[in-house]
Specification:
Number of domains: 2
Number of strands: 4
Structural class: mainly alpha
Distance between the termini: 51 Å
Oligomer: single chain
């Protein structure tokens, strides 16, 4: 399906009405949930993990988000087949997250519970990644590995969204961008039912942003972050990953690249300093932006723009395939190569700004010209003592969170 046909497809099959219904419901329900939160212990006072806010804030906004999604899906979506399992699982994961928001759960217990709930759609409704399409290697059926691979994907994405939910509007914006991208990709593959659910998720998160934008009046909490990540993962499976197109694998990875990179960096950093990978600290991308002087709004804007750029490239690969109908298209190859270099360069700049890629890393990659001005020497990188000072900073900001 062409890009124009896909855009026109977004205005059919209940997609815009599902989007609007979810957005309005969440917009109206969120203030009610915020009033209930203090009565049931659903207020974030800080202290259990690093925070960027300094005042108590209700943290069960996910209740409004999930109610809005389930209600809109019941009216405008297909509640038969695998979508029944998806929605049941989303509701149950939201309850697990709500319990954690109020009473607290160990990370290992949360993860195990999400995996158990994921068995409902995966085994009960056969919603799984059945084959993987790799560039140049073709489409491969993965057989028995489909179940553990799908469970891993669902648990991975649920925790990705949960981990980036540490700053006003960040997680809601990332999910809105991802779900909008999945809606368009799903329509292009002729999977209108998945597109409806993706549009509903997009509407729900945009409705929530009205109350979550800095300074946030409410957080989505684990009840929202876990449920949204869980549902996004299943939408990606049903709407994109089940297709035989090459972009089927690369698309979801590009769309979710920002939280994937953030989590990967944070986990590697924790392992470097010999701390458990699930231990909290101040090393997420948004923490680094705040440390170098960005405001919360500017930080969210940069990360959202980064996510939009990567999602746009995934969509471009879908509609300007380098091998349409199995034949190489020189024009598409050149276009994707040129824009791919620009996207990679922008991502490298972002990583360098966040001091994830330090000057010595850029020099090793042959990009020393980007740091000559700060070093003052064309031949050498910055003094090693600078890296030692950086390590000291890292240990300092993570102290006390072991």
């Amino acid at each position: 399906m062409s890009f124009g046909d896909s855009i026109r497809g977004l205005v059919g099959d209940g997609i815009p009405w599902g989007f609007l219904t979810a957005a309005v419901l969440v917009l109206l329900l969120t203030p009610l949930v915020a009033r209930i939160a203090p009565r049931i212990g659903g207020v974030d006072h800080g202290g259990d993990r690093p925070r960027v806010h300094t005042r108590p804030v209700p943290r069960i906004g996910g209740v409004a988000i999930v109610i809005g999604i389930l209600a809109a899906a019941a009216v405008w979506g297909d509640v038969s087949g695998p979508y029944t399992g998806m929605l049941i699982g989303t509701g149950l994961v939201a309850l697990v997250g709500l319990y954690d928001d109020i009473f607290g759960l160990r990370p290992s217990v949360k993860l195990a519970t999400v995996v158990l709930v994921a068995l409902i759609p995966v085994l009960g409704w056969d919603l799984r990644i059945e084959h993987v399409t790799l560039p140049f290697l073709g489409d491969h059926d993965i057989g028995w590995a489909s179940v553990p691979l799908t469970l891993l994907w669902v648990a991975f994405l649920a925790n990705l969204v949960n981990l980036i939910d540490g700053m006003d509007s960040l997680a809601a914006g990332i999910v809105a961008i991802a779900s909008a991208s999945f809606a368009l990709l799903a329509v292009s593959f002729g999977r209108a039912d998945a597109a409806v659910v993706a549009a509903i998720v997009c509407g729900a998160t945009l409705g929530f942003l009205r109350h979550n934008y800095h300074p946030a009046k409410i957080f989505m909490g684990d009840s929202g972050a876990l449920a949204l990540g869980f549902l996004l993962a299943l939408i990606a499976v049903e709407g994109v990953l089940k297709t035989a197109a090459t972009i089927a694998l690369a698309g979801p990875l590009l769309v979710m690249a920002v939280p994937i990179l953030d989590t990967s960096f944070v986990v590697l950093k924790r392992l470097k300093y010999r701390r458990p990978p699930w231990s909290p600290d101040h090393n997420h991308f948004y923490h680094r932006f705040l440390r170098i002087g960005f405001s919360q709004r500017r930080t969210a804007a940069y990360l959202h723009l980064w996510a939009i750029m990567l999602s746009a490239y995934a969509i471009l690969v879908r509609f300007a395939s380098p091998r349409p109908q199995g034949e190489w298209d020189t024009g598409n190859v050149l276009l994707l190569s040129l824009l791919g270099v620009l996207v990679a360069a922008a991502s490298v700049w972002m990583a360098h700004t966040l001091e994830i890629l330090k000057a010595r890393h850029l020099k090793a990659l042959g990009l020393g010209r980007l740091v000559r001005a700060e070093v003052g020497d064309d031949e050498v990188g910055p003094p090693e003592s600078e890296d030692e000072r950086q390590d000291t900073v890292e240990r300092t900001v993570t102290a006390g969170y072991r």
